[in-house]
Design a protein that fits this description.
heterodimer, A: about 450 residues, alpha+beta, 15 helices, globular, B: mainly beta, 5-stranded mixed sheet, 12 strands, about 10% helix, about 35% strand
Chain lengths: ~450, ~150
Amino acid sequence: MIRSLLIANRGEIAVRIIRTCKEMGIRTVAVYSTADAGSLHTRMADQAVCIGPAPSSESYLHRRNIITAACATRCDAIHPGVGFLSENPVFAQEVEDAGLIFIGPTAQTIRMLGDKVRSRHTATEAGVPVTPGSMEAVTSGAEATKLADEIGYPVILKAAAGGGGRGMRIVREPRDLDRAISIASSEAKAFFDDGTIHLEKYLENPRHVEIQLLSDGKGQVVHLGERDCSVQKNHQKLIEESPSPAIDEQMRRHMGADSVRLFSHIGYRGAGTIEFLVQDGAYWFMEVNARVQVEHPVTELVCSTDIIRQQILIASGKSIELDGSAAKISGHALECRVNAGASGTITRFSPPLGPSVRVDTHLCEHAVVSPHYDPMIAKVITHGPDRQRTIDSMIRALREFEIEGVQTNIASQITILQSKAFRSGTFGTDLYSRLFAEEKTR
Amino acid sequence: MDIQKLEAYIALFEQSTLSELEFSSEHESVSMKRSVGTSLPPAEGAESITVSSTPSTGQTQKQQNKNHRIITSPIVGTFYRTPSPDSPPYVEVGDTVETGDTLCTLEAMKLMNQLEAEYACEIVAILADQGTLVEFGQPLFEVKPL
């Protein structure tokens, strides 16, 4: 069993992981950059090690400083959290080479899933539907034109090594294709040092639905239902919920079974998420996030489970504390990301309390929202018996949240929650732009 | 100093409860300090690389004494004052070093990183303990630039 754990992350996710460790009796070591000195995760952990200056490339991405800190403080394992080094196969390998446990899949799995072309192949092998498109890298020329004609415009070009909305290019007209391929390829080369791109059908207004899985790497794979992350602004998720109002029981069963089959097929170890696009009663595999996700709390609430705890148990070679291949879902959960509009010092901070509400944050009065890192202030999560009640709780909670000193997106989050489209549950990824375009023209 | 005399000093120090002992005469100076850490100094022949002590701003902080400066650790590592278990320390308090002279070894993932002086200076104090973990930015030496 893991007895000492280093958390290679910062902010609310580091705090989140430390809390579970405390409940499990695991000693924690935090790491921090000079910009995060005194931050909540450094105060909550049993020990804290400064690993570098403010820029993350010299601190939270500094693999050697992190691994050295883990070894010197006699940790058994490293939890990478989300972002930073969480899906870096080189780091996963180096952690294991140093004799430590990496809380996540193997380096080999991370590498395979990080390549969009290879992961599409793997999904197809496991019998999971992928969006119509190329199964190999595309280059300019007749082949790409023929393929695009077959599947129909618009199409999207994606960097094989890309993710998070970067390195993508939508093509609506055949005459733009050749030029777009050469631009996308050089962008991919510049961003990811890999010019490989592939082409697939572009869905105009799909739902973004993902399946949460836990897999022990020894045969047991459990799916914990889905999360709907369709409310996005420039590909950044704003509101997530479970269950999804866009899929019915039959589709849920099929997506769950497909997801379990894919993870069994690759012998996945740990917590992971399979992202799908859903439109017109069909779904297609998009990618695997080989780590815990920011929006994991909604699943924790509807499944009454602690996903971080399960990750630690799996990494320790223990069994997942859920039976069968599908977790039981109870009620509805919603998460709103409260983000800062700009960096600054928080002068007043009073998060919501009361029934149905959970708040994950690392901030407090006098804390600084640093310009060096992501602008997330808090995640507000509500859990209720049904979707409407959960939305009501969320609106109440957000109104209760008092933050001064930095601008936040709370008002726009409330606008979304109160909109007819969101309430109805019938909308796609264009909801945000539609709502706020209407606001402007009104 | 002859070896027997030194042995006598060491025996005396070991029997005492002192954590640190320094003395000097016209011809010799001796400094002894009990190691707080438990690790052994790095083995000889280990791979070595050089690290810079001032990769970013704020690394060389002003000390109370206006002429003194603090040299801080540029990485996370284990601090060693000697190149190998049996060797004498790179520097002692009172030593003067030239630009490029090695001050200490910082071991990180089995790599021996030699920290070199960025400027000529006199060592006023050694602030980290042999064999212990040092963090990024942790003070290692108090020095007086020459």
